[in-house]
Amino acid sequence: MLEALYDRIDDKRDELVELTRSLVRIPTINPPGDAYVDCAELIGRRLARRGFDIQYLRGEGTPGDSERYPRTNVVARRDGRAPGACVHFNGHIDVVEPGLGWSVDPFAAVVRDGRVYGRGTCDMKGGLAAAIIAVEALIESEVDLPGSIEISGTVDEETGGYGGVAYLAHQGFFSKPRVDHVIIPEPLNVDRVCLGHRGVWWAEIETGGHIAHGSMPFLGDCAVRHMGAFLARLESELYPALAQKRTRMPVVPEGARQSTLNINSLHGGLAEGYDGLPSPLVPDSCRMVIDRRFLIEEDLPQVKAEVVSILEALRHERANFSYELRDIMEVQPLMTEADRPVVTAVSAAVERVLGRRAEHIVSPGTYDQKHITRIGHLKDCIAYGPGILDLAHQPDEYVDIDDMVASAKVMATAALELLTGRAP
User: Fold this and answer.
1) Which residues contact 422 (CB under 8 A, 6 or more apart)?
2) Which class for 322: exposed (0-12), middle (13-18), buried (19 or more C-beta within 10 A)?
3) Strand segments (E) across 332-394
4) CB of 230 within 8 A of CB of 311?
5) Burial of 237 (0-12, 13-18, 19+ CB in 10 A)
6) Residue of 122, 131, 136, 111 lying closest to 5 (CA atoms)
7) Distances, alpha carbon 208 to alpha carbons 202, 214, 229, 230, 240, in Å
8) Looking at the chain, which terminus has fewer C-beta neighbours within 10 angstroms, N or C?
9) What is the pLDDT of residues 278-319, one digit of tens each?
């Protein structure tokens, strides 16, 4: 039965490529959230022709949602002939802006050297297309499957997922008894099963000052210099301490097995984008956004306290030092247990299809599993899909066609086991 299923997926190779190209050609750039409706409807029309019930669900009131940029998700469901488990494949349809440095049109979906190039090929329209082909091949094999299969195309993963998976999770779309197992085809290499991710704390820090004429800075108080003092303390105190924190989580790449802190942005003084001569002013505000990734062994209050303690020390030691700290986002680290049904099914399928043991990993950054676990309270969730993680958000992003075909076979095999309750 499996060989016939694999032959069917091989026969769909060109169809898989064309579906990927069709998805990539819709420039669902986020922000602001372009063309979500067009992409959701492409998926919905295709799956409706294959017997799925289709729902379009707008995340009204979520960040970025508007009449011009509606946060429109698509959820497709196909029930079997008998009751049973539900396997859900979830892929995000939004992509980041293309940026500079491309050698091809980022939305032309060029096929070259066994690869499809374009923004979103790797992250993660190639994975979503592979999941759709896997499910279609399984249905066309005419196996009398119990239970249900769902496929969703969701929005805003690149900006936190609040209009997509988080919104749907609040509506019960990622909870039992509706759904039992979730596979997210993120690009984490075709022989890896991703169990979860590190935690994240984003925050904005603003240092204050006093405006004055730039020729007489002694009459003002430079907020940028105050921020510079904070940056110096990060370099001398916090960065060395973070480098000593290591985790048991199998995070990839190796450098992400420690705690990290990224300075996401820094701005003080004259507004950005002004191309005339600057006015001679002492800046009275300087803002910095930090991106702190932390480990399952760490406690979020302590993570925050490490930054606050430096700011408070400066407030006592440095004349006129003042600051404000604003939380932007916080996500706890998570890791699905290795003996969960979805982990064992996908791992076994990797070994069957590729002939080698699956590597269990943890992602350095978060993805929509966080909402499925936190809001939906569904623990049987992993990420698995084609694509090389390092290519995500890069110019000349691509997905390997052979990897898409292989991952479709893995997903079809795993779904068959999860639905029937027995290894194929």
Assistant:
1) none
2) middle
3) 334-335, 359-363, 381-383
4) yes
5) middle
6) 136
7) 20, 16, 13, 12, 27
8) N
9) 889 999 999 999 999 999 999 999 999 999 999 999 999 999
Give CA–CA dist 29/39, Å, rounded. 11
List, in order of start, the domains of the chain with CATH numbers. Answer: 2-197+333-420 (3.40.630.10), 199-329 (3.30.70.360)
Rg value, the chain, Cα = 24
pTM to 2 decimal places: 0.92
Residue keyed to tokens 């939305």: 107
Distance (Å, whole) CA 318 – CA 66: 45
SS3 labels along 16-52 = HHHHHHHHHCCCCECCCCCCHHHHHHHHHHHHHCCCC
Q: How big, in percent rounded to 5, are the helix, strand and coil portions of the chain? A: 35, 25, 40
Beta strand pairing status for 86-92 and 181-184?
parallel
pLDDT tens, N- to C-terminus, the chain (424 residues)? 799 999 999 999 999 999 999 999 999 999 999 999 999 999 999 999 999 999 999 999 999 999 999 999 999 999 998 999 999 999 999 999 999 999 999 999 999 999 999 999 999 999 999 999 999 999 999 778 999 999 999 999 999 999 999 999 999 999 999 999 999 999 999 999 999 999 999 999 999 999 999 999 999 999 999 999 999 999 999 999 999 999 999 999 999 999 999 999 999 998 877 788 888 999 999 999 999 999 999 999 999 999 999 999 999 999 999 999 999 999 999 999 999 999 999 999 999 999 999 999 999 999 999 999 999 999 999 999 999 988 999 999 999 999 999 999 999 999 999 999 877 7
CA 203 distance to own-chain centroid: 19
Residue 129: HSE in the Cβ half-sphere, 13 Å Cα cutoff = 32
Could you tell me the two tokens for 412? 């079809």
Percent of the chain past pLDDT 90, that is, above it, reads 94
Strands 111-112 and 115-117, sheet pairing: antiparallel
Tokens, residue 221: 């108080």
Q: Using one digit for the tens of pLDDT, what is the confidence trace for 380-416?
A: 999 999 999 889 999 999 999 999 999 999 999 999 9
CB 122 within 8 A of CB 22: no
